[in-house]
Structures
1.
Amino acid sequence: MINIKAPFRAAGSFARASVVTSMVGMGLLMGGAGVALTTPALAQAAPGSISAAQEIANKFSSVKTLTGNFVQFGPRGDQTEGTFYIERPGKIRFNYNKPSPIRVISDGKSVVINNRKLDTWDLYPLSKTPLKLLLSDQIDLSGGKVKSVKQEPDMTTIVLGDKSIFGNSTITMMFDPKTNDLRQWTITDAQGLDTTVMITNVRTGVRFADDMFTIDYTRIAMKR
């Protein structure tokens, strides 16, 4: 367990204000479309650092299923909690604890944010979100994606960017240096807004119900 004296920060930015509100600053979707590319691009990390980062990513991507709890710190200091479920490639589910009405589901092709109280559904292509990188069957950090790697006794921090997906935004992944287990990720958008998702009580090698990652496209179509 990592001793955290203050919340790590990361960010999520969304193209429409209504989506920002409904997603409670989730920090999971922030595709380059609609985001002003106003910040300078980060330089690529040194080859040795890239190799170290790829080794960690290989270990992380070898875990095909996992579940646990999460705590999210939003850009305005708000805090929410819940349970997450991951199945590679491309599938994830976030169930937020009450009173939050939000749940997030990716079925490998699309990501939907559902506000159960308002019965709203915001649908995005998985390929245009940072989740694409996190949920890939094999995480490929070539092509200048690795911006920096910082190795410390209690944490290994890898900053990633992919202009085709994130614009000038970045995603920071923090790993336990002893086990290479992911502890949290952070997303920083072009406007500098920050959101953190920190995960705990992680279990791997689990099996999920067949409908765990199902998106009801028929219902979404009816709401439009």
Note: The radius of gyration is 17 Å.
2.
Amino acid sequence: MDAGGFQAQGDQAVHYETDDRVCLSSSSTTQLDSIAAIDEQLLPAWIKLARHAAEPNAFYEHWLLNPALDQFRTDENLSLFLFWAGLPYKSDLLGLMPVGPVRQFGRWPLPFVQNWTHHNCFLGTPLVRSGFENQFWTALFVRLDAKDWPGFLHMRGLTVGGSLDRAMRSVCARQNRRCDLVHSEARAMLSGQQNAESYYVDTVRAKKRKELRRQAKRLSELGEVQLARLDQDDGLASWIDEFLALESKSWKGRAGSALASAPNTEAFFRAALQGAAKNRQLERYELRLDGKPLALLVNFHCGPGSFSFKTAYDEEYARFSPGVLLQLENLKLLERPDIDWMDSCAAEDHPMIDRLWSERRHIGRFSIELKGLSRTAMFRGVRWGENLMAQIKGRQITDVMQAKI
């Protein structure tokens, strides 16, 4: 029996009359429904699933996934895989993941199946009820094996070495199904038992700390410096306007990659922050000089985890490192009893955050074989080609799971 109060027995389990625990009263069922079929009927079960997820993922919670689907979905075949404890909508939801067919695999015109992500989605780990990781993958593979989608399954953005990765590999090994880690990157992560000051001293070199103190002092000589943490929705609409304007002034605006550079990314950002605030999962930090925003930061909190989603700073004040000064304030997350870790959502070897946060979280892409002669042939042909190119280019993949063996 797990901490949630259930005892799985294959597809069956014992039902315990305890509030907020999984209620399994019959055989589990799965759905692979069109995204267009999603309605508010799913919301209570979705929220409960996210609250008890084995691995928190803000990007697949309803308040963040729905705005993304509204703005970025282009394939009409995109579906939502749902794994229910019993009858759909009459039992607990044990797993959820958007998934669908894709026409081209990188540069190769080969169709395959993939969990759905977008440019502003920094984690693709499915939402799975803690304790049901193995059952989730078993149910998903059964459904995809029977589906008429071509190719293999490609999973993007999984936490390498996490409970879902371990369960996926275990199920694949038991089913004699190949499951290959094809890409991995290490991005900065914040966690630990230290307070913010101790962590800062241990992580950042003394010379750099001295430089940051000098920059903070010089900035304060220009006017009143204000640092604030905001976790309510007061003034949110105008704050979003400030963030978008600040980001648009930066190199992102000049490159056309700022959120406000396209109507759909701006609409997504506004809806995402409003949804996070409504669900009390939004946290904002700001650094101002005489009321003028110099740096703004958006975090999303999900149970024991957190995601540093977006940051923007005024490049005219770059000599004072306003973004770094704001991140130093963000270190106080270490002292919060309700948050265990924060994912930076930053690229590997990020020049700023990698110097402030010492932990690393490995995020990977996996290719998984689906049943069927043509699918097996395609999978093995693609993997042969990928391995050959990796040898030619000298690419290596870090698998923390192998390092633990």
Note: The CA atoms of residues 164 and 369 lie 17 Å apart.
3.
Amino acid sequence: MTSTPPRTTDRPTHRRAPAGTTALRLGLLALVAIGIGGAALELAFERHWQSFTQLIPWFALALLVAALALLALRDSPRVVTVVRVLAGAVLLASAYGVFMHVSVNHGMGGMDSSWDSLTPLTQWWYALTKSVGNAPPLAPGMLAQSSLLLLLASLISKTKPAS
């Protein structure tokens, strides 16, 4: 009588993640989708397409849409890596957008006769808080928020390896 050793496979079997984890992941993905929709509407309402620089957030939104679709459909390690790279690129674009908006607002401060009497810190504070200028510095932050939510969602797997 001979016994056969148990079969081992190279590929792990997967089980569904716990319901709470799945709900959290879906909630994060839904928040990303809402953020994308809100940012797109804001950009459209502002007619934010007059120059190449104004097209950057549209490209960033396209990257977010692609990353969201990838992560929603699949969560293989390769897909998760691609999603994280895309979200990182959008974070960089968002930081650039905040910088540009604050810089434009700071430049508009020169039109005020009392601008030069303010300290540089006060000038930059006014530019950041939109006390001068019309560019909303926090609008690009919507892209950053969606990117960070997508990064968080990428940490939660749809399936977990069997132990």
Note: The chain has a mean pLDDT of 87.
